[in-house]
């Protein structure tokens, strides 16, 4: 799996020696996914050279595996004939992916290079919403008719196999292209040659609509352990299939999106390095500014306790107790957000969660309070203040647990993305709550 | 995809009416993955009843899809004959999964119910490390020999298909069971009947070892878009395959593990509700105590600035600037940790990252400083202090970005899990740094 660094050096040596014949012979030995990693390590001019030496099938496969910014760079360098040849042979879903990332002007020029039917298909696919099943699907699937027998179905599959993304499922449609059944190649191979497709096909199959979100598609494939899922249009006509390899990428993408949102960033689908500097700055700064503005509430609260703040030793414990509260809240929020994302927590579990998190908060608060007192004693802290801090800590951890658990659930009920109610947002709420709780406890116990 | 609530009600009605005949007829109509969700909504006694009414194949499939704590509960209620029947028919990887979660005493009793060959296989699988390819693999794959021709290979596949987890790849082994090639069913169907397997099989295939971590297996399947990957032992003999559906679960599990670690929790593989209260408390409290102890440094630092703290209005800005620093650091850490996890950032990119994060930190710090001054003016803050805070903020955001980016990279270089260097750990470091920077800037500018 590790790219052979030696391979890169050998390729570079052949290029330097201009020994293109040996290079051309060596390239087909490399797996496309490995060649992609090798290309990333070579300068652009050498990438172009390697593409010229690849056989068409492999060139198309390697090109499809590149990141979109690399594809764009190469397309600019290709001749129109070259670009045309590769674009025409790409799978429709890979092509739609690429066009999605390019500026509209370039897309129009490139679409014009395609034959009419592919052009229509592209225009149709690009009209589906971002991240929908319609964007993700391929139209290269196997069709069968219900009255075919098994022998002729298998014969048909063998005939059309070279052009299809998967041949392991075949889709049975009627005259109006309505999907009426699915049959797996395994079922066909196990059945008698004379049996009819309609008698062995699954009629209670799972399908998705072109407009369904890719996350929904991924969940369906995952739940039912499928290799592919059919996509139907709003009139229930079969228009494509989504295969499991594309869904794996979606699962990673959706997790990355959640990681970013939970760190208070607008989600980006591109990788760290392929996201431009200012694009990335923009995605980060908006949330940081919003959160900074929210921190003004801590100022208001602290001004309110200006007199209490004169007891300097109270301040010594402040970062510790609001920080610990923030940590507990971040834990709760993460558990709930992830549970909601993988579908094992439902908003209906509201009361069970409140119950569990409350008890957990009290237990953890008690333990942390004890640790605080012991470590305070060792550190030579003002013990009166340490007792105040530990009592406040119990209340703060309990509140933090509840805030961390409830806010994602409330977001979900309001049809918002629970992932935005993660660490940073919880921390600020716990900071404000924590300061109030701490100083109220202090005022009460110190009688001021 | 949504479980039909009506279906649950209908099933409950049939159970109440004791109309088991209708129930028995209705059950095979439900997809196993849906029936699992329905079972979770029914009381245990009804679950047992439904299992008695299911045909064996479906019972095994549904049982395999249940969470391990549910499986354990049912096994206690099954008769020994019942348990034996289900255990014997489960796929080896599902069975290893279950045994992994059960107490050793019960496992020994259950293993004794299996025939000798399955018993040996289980003992061998359970000896592989946790989360390794050996645990994840199934032994139900199709073998071919190199000298077979295509027609007899297809005939062989049709014969053995019912017992195999996938028939879409076949694995070619020699006399010593060494894996020498892989051929897909698609290739076989496209080839002439008289061709030999050895002439069409892929010889440059990807395989993993029994001891390889499941994350490595998932990355290989993802990278090469495979439906299954062969697993070989340390002597390179073929012992099993891992299929893509199991890998999808691994990808989700690994992401969940990272989410938990990044929220400063010990990772748990079980779901929120199936993790016991005290188990979950233990996984959370250890990190919270460690972080609380680390917060003692903020106390030491604050004591050092006891005189400066007498300027109460300095304290008003403290939560805001250390909180904002923590947020910026959390963003950087998350970007780097996720980038490392999906393999698009390598430790080699060290300098590129330092460069990008430094400039990003200065730019974001400047913008945030301006927002701080404006919002301070609106809020009627002490403007001298607001200027001090905004200057400190630039340095703090820069330091936070660098800490957030570098600590995960350093962890990776030290072969530690980068995910532990996330939000909570970064926040505490930025809190300490932030307090020092803020009060040093204040002392310098206020000339004290």
From TrEMBL, chains A, B:
Question: Which superkingdom does the taxonomy of this entry point to?
Answer: Bacteria
The CBS domain is annotated at 137-198, 201-257
MF terms per GO, please? magnesium ion transmembrane transporter activity; metal ion binding
Where in the cell is the protein located?
A: Cell membrane; Membrane
**Gene3D superfamilies, per database record:** CBS-domain (3.10.580.10), MgtE N-terminal domain-like (1.25.60.10), SLC41 divalent cation transporters, integral membrane domain (1.10.357.20)
One Pfam family, short name please?
CBS
Q: What does this protein do?
A: Acts as a magnesium transporter.
Name of the featured protein: Magnesium transporter MgtE
This chain's source organism reads Candidatus Fischerbacteria bacterium RBG_13_37_8
């Amino acid at each position: 799996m590790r790219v052979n660094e030696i391979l890169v050096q050998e390729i570079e040596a052949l290029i330097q020696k201009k020994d293109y014949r040996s290079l051309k012979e060596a390239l087909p030995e490399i797996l496309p996914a490995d060649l992609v990693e090798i290309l990333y390590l070579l300068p652009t001019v050498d990438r172009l050279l390697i593409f010229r030496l690849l056989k068409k099938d492999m060139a198309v496969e390697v090109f499809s595996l590149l990141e979109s910014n690399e594809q764009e760079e190469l397309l600019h360098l290709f001749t129109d004939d070259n670009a045309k040849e590769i674009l025409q042979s790409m799978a429709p879903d890979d092509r739609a992916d690429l066009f999605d990332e390019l500026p509209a002007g370039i897309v129009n020029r490139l679409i014009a290079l395609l034959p009419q039917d592919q052009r229509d298909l592209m225009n149709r696919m690009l009209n589906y919403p971002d991240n929908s099943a319609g964007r993700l699907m391929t139209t290269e699937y196997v069709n069968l008719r219900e009255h075919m027998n098994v022998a002729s179905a298998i014969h048909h599959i063998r005939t059309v196999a070279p052009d299809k993304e998967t041949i392991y499922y075949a889709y049975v449609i009627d005259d109006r292209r309505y999907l009426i059944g699915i049959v797996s190649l395994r079922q066909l191979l196990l059945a008698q040659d004379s049996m009819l497709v309609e008698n062995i096909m699954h009629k209670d199959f799972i399908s998705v609509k072109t407009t369904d979100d890719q996350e929904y598609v991924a969940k369906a494939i995952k739940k039912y352990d499928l290799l592919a899922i059919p996509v139907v249009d709003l009139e229930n006509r079969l228009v494509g299939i989504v295969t499991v390899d594309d869904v794996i990428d979606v699962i990673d993408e959706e997790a990355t999106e959640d990681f970013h949102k939970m760190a208070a960033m607008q989600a980006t689908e591109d990788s760290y390095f392929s996201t431009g500097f200012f694009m990335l700055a923009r995605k980060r700064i908006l949330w940081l500014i919003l959160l900074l503005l929210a921190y003004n509430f801590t100022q208001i609260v602290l001004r309110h306790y200006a007199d209490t703040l004169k007891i300097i030793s109270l301040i010594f414990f402040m970062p510790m107790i609001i920080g610990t509260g923030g940590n507990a809240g971040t834990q709760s929020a993460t558990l709930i957000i992830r549970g909601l994302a993988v579908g094992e927590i439902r908003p209906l579990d509201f009361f069970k969660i409140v119950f569990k998190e409350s008890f957990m908060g009290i237990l953890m608060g008690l333990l942390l309070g004890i640790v605080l007192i012991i470590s305070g004693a060792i550190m030579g802290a003002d013990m009166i203040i340490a007792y105040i801090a530990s009592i406040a800590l119990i209340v703060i951890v309990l509140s933090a647990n509840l805030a961390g658990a409830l806010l994602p659930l409330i977001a979900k009920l309001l049809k918002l993305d629970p992932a935005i109610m993660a660490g940073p947002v919880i921390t600020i709420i716990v900071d404000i709550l924590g300061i109030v709780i701490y100083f109220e406890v202090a005022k009460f116990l110190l009688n001021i």
